[in-house]
Amino acid sequence: MKIIYFLTVIISVVPPPLFSSTFYLDPEEGILSNDGSSERPWTTVQEVLDSNLVETYAPFEYPYMEGDSLTLINEGAPVKAGDTLICRTGYYGSLHISRNFNTDYITIVAEEGNTPVFKNIRFTGTRYWYLKGLTITPSSAPEYENTTLISIEWHDWSGPSTYITVEDCYLHSIENTFFWSAENWDELSCTAISSQGKHVIIRNNYCKNVNFGISSSGDSCLVEYNTVENFAGDGLRGLRDYNTFQYNIVKNSYDVNGNHDDGFQSWSVGEGGVGTDTVWGVILRGNTIINYEDPNQPHRGTLQGIGCFDGFYADWIVENNVVIVNHYHGITLSGAVNCRITNNTVLDRDTTDSDISPWIRVGNHKDGSASVGCIVRNNIYYRSLSIDSPQTEDHNLMVRNYDSNFVDFGQFDFRLKEGSPAIDAGTRNLAPAIDIRGTSRPQGSLYDIGAYEYAAEEESNFFSPLIIYPNPFNTFTDITFTLLTYGDVHLEIYNSSGAKIKEYVDHSITPRTYHYTFHRENFGSGVYFVYLKVNNQVASKKVILVK
Ligand SMILES: [Ca+2]
Ligand SMILES: [Ca+2]
Ligand SMILES: [Ca+2]
Ligand SMILES: [Ca+2]
What we know:
By secondary structure, this protein is mainly β. The chain has two helices and 49 strands. One calcium ion binds next to loops.
């Protein structure tokens, strides 16, 4: 199936400087001695870098440490800070960006409708690079290799990597693992994104059939709106301070080796080893973690939800997450100080073995020190609240009957159903201002318990009405809707003779507001029809292009 990542997330990118330039790359038709124009494109990103076509800064001496002085290299080269390299369809091989410190982002982006494929991308000693819309997989390489698909390194010789953004990329080991044995999975699955960088943004990427999903072991990073689907290791890892993981989907764990799989995992590392320091200020917000979608999934694993066993963890916020696992650890913090666990929904994936079911737990540190000052509030939980030492704990609700509480548990629609005792039973005190799908709290007069705030007028629609603005339009128009639950989105545009001219497909994305942009391209003036299908609900709307 053709998957087009064309999603413009609500948080838009800072516009490039006024005089920025655009260059084109085409590994099949390009020539390095060209000028990089649309008509005369260059070859691959690596060859452009290696041919000194990028003006940038490099370390003056090595090893390069953060803050050491830099020197301008390739002065007068055509590509400068703020510029964009547009990549056309083709195979780009491995890309290693090293010792390139820009003063503003240089963007490497897929041309619309094109699929540039990289084997892997590695950053060592870099600043201000932006990857957008790329496909990263070794499955197109002449020889398959298990590799980290994107590696952002804090390198002890070339220097640190900071201000790297990876957005709208498609990362996978292979497209289809149907024929993979457990041994194949163990040997061949690639880790998707491993980052040691600071100020790294990892947004709206689709990581499929991977070993570990997305790991951040640098400070002050943002990991949001990503999907990690089918993974052998841990879905997400956050090992350093002030990282935010929000609105990600992690689903389908594979049991193919000795790893204990976690939807999200963290631990501290101090001078005495694991568990002897503190991880500060992590935010886990609005993530959906699902042990497995298909009960017949091959190599089905047992997933721990949010598993944090080696604190301390201080000043964490864990809110609006949905955790559906068949394990004891739904949300567990062992060694927590001033952490807040509010408005999460934690449920047992398989209630036929109800003895194996998830709790919310704030436990002592493994060294026996007590957790202090934590708040556990407004949560739905299946098994128990398990608190080792006195913490603040109120307005939580045990839920065992899914049919009477959720719209459709079987379809992963965890919205509250009319009549659920969770509705209006929470407290406003520290409740998040919005729920997992962006609906403001409270709906009705009172706050609900769990990740979803019940909205009576929604009934069981999967999405809100389509808004197309402007309409009529001349250059482009914005198609907006709010996905009200977890779902597969198909957006199609037809011309007046019924031919499909555009298709956007996003699988199993998280509830929130989405914007798609319809550009006029070479289409003629006239009437077009926009169809939106989510799960089995369809809506359509007319849009007029006037040239
Ligand atoms: Ca596993
Ligand atoms: Ca783990
Ligand atoms: Ca169970
Ligand atoms: Ca309410």
